[in-house]
Amino acid sequence: MSVARTYLDYNASAPLRPEARDAVVAALDVFGNASSVHTEGRRARALVDEARASIAELVNADPAEIVFTSGATEANTWALTAPWDRIAVAGIEHDSVRAPAAQTAAERGVKTIELPATPDGTVDYKTVGLGAGTLMVLQRANNETGVLQDVEAAGLWATENGVRIHCDAVQAPGRIPINFRTLGATTLSLSAHKIGGPKGIGALVISGNAPLPPLFTGGGQEVRRRAGTENVAGIAGFGAAARAALRDLADTPRVAALRDQLEAEVLRATPEAVVLGANAPRLPNTSSIALPGHSAETLVIKFDLAGIAISAGAACSSGKVGQSHVLTAMGLAPEVARSAIRVSLGTQTTEQDIAAFLAAWKRICGSASLAA
Ligand code: PMP
């Protein structure tokens, strides 16, 4: 007998949207090479162009600024290859930023500067004395806590101080508006599977004045910035997901209300629980909840057995037992960080999903008296 599942792990990967699935399937039959001049080739090119325009609209960029990549890990890695004197990265950034920053530092002698974060997850870049010629990486929204960085304010500050910004915006589209024109970032990374598109496709948005060398050079694709025959089906799915994600912004108040209800009832059932980043601006769909004395890994397994998918910190690091580097960088005590689970909602989340989660929470986490 199959058990009904409740999926509350949108920040790890969102369910494939029907319109993205349809676009992928249809594009698989468009077999021409998008670089070919014949009719078949032009059909494939049209799909790529249409998707590029949709993604540009999602983030208010120029279509010419969108370069397709295999995902945000590739986009982040690429953005860090420019010849900077210094790279500034906070401990709360995703591994796909932190690891290439460390690699660039080791291989090219680029100085890396660790930016501090407050206990609420906000990056403090002003007190570190970043000089001109620094690339500062600043995520728009954290994948574990949902805490937002004010990239726009940072962009104004960066312009005055000769600093450039790379923004990892993977968790933001469809949840909060993104405006590449006013953000103040030189480059910005996106990933399709976080917005209901297929996995293995993403983009780096590159402003015209970014001193970024091509990623791959063996072909003329993507205006010679990223060689290789285009992943037309993935790109078409990404485009369809981008159009749907833009529409989803209207659904934000509903998702936020469900998330707020979940947190309020968790705190009522278990007053010792702590909502991390609660005092900072956050994504409307994400809740990071610590329950000191419990192990997040064990909680995830118990919830899974109860039919509910949540995560302990970042899914990208699942299989790796230990403490989240994000929560550690926020200065949280190890027993708090080790107990934190992440619940992330999306467009298909219903009141029934929240009720199922709360019933399981009370059963799994509540002491007999509190849960009664
Ligand atoms: N940055 C953030 C904030 C993420 O959450 C993720 C995915 N977990 C990535 C980058 C990597 O994206 P991708 O899966 O497309 O490589």
Topology (elements, then pairings):
Blueprint: E1 6-7, H1 18-28, H2 39-59, E2 66-69, H3 72-79, E3 86-90, H4 95-108, E4 111-115, E5 134-137, H5 151-161, E6 164-168, H6 180-183, E7 187-191, E8 202-206, H7 221-224, H8 232-248, H9 252-269, E9 274-275, E10 286-290, H10 296-305, E11 308-309, H11 325-329, H12 334-337, E12 340-344, H13 351-365, H14 368-371
Parallel strand pairs: 1-11, 3-4, 3-5, 5-6, 6-7
Antiparallel strand pairs: 2-8, 7-8, 9-10, 10-12
4'-deoxy-4'-aminopyridoxal-5'-phosphate (PMP) is lined by residues 71-73, 76, 94, 96, 139, 143, 168, 170-171, 191, 202, 316.
Number of helices: 14
What amount of the residues lies in strands?
5-15%
Helix content: 25-40%
Report the count of strand segments: 12
Question: Can you tell me the CATH superfamily of the largest domain?
Answer: Type I PLP-dependent aspartate aminotransferase-like (Major domain)
Number of structural domains: 2
**Overall pLDDT, averaged?**
94
Major sheet characteristics: 7 strands, mixed
Question: Which stretches are low in confidence, meaning pLDDT under 50 for 5 or more residues running?
Answer: 368-372
By secondary-structure content and strand pairing, the structural class works out as alpha/beta
Query: Distance between the terminal alpha carbons, to the nearest Å?
Result: 30 Å
Radius of gyration: 21 Å
In CATH, the topology of the largest domain is named Aspartate Aminotransferase, domain 2
Overall shape: globular
As an assembly, this protein is single chain
Q: Could you say what the CATH architecture of the largest domain is?
A: 3-Layer(aba) Sandwich
Widest β-sheet, arrangement of strands: 2-8-7-6-5-3-4
* Distinct small molecules: 4'-deoxy-4'-aminopyridoxal-5'-phosphate
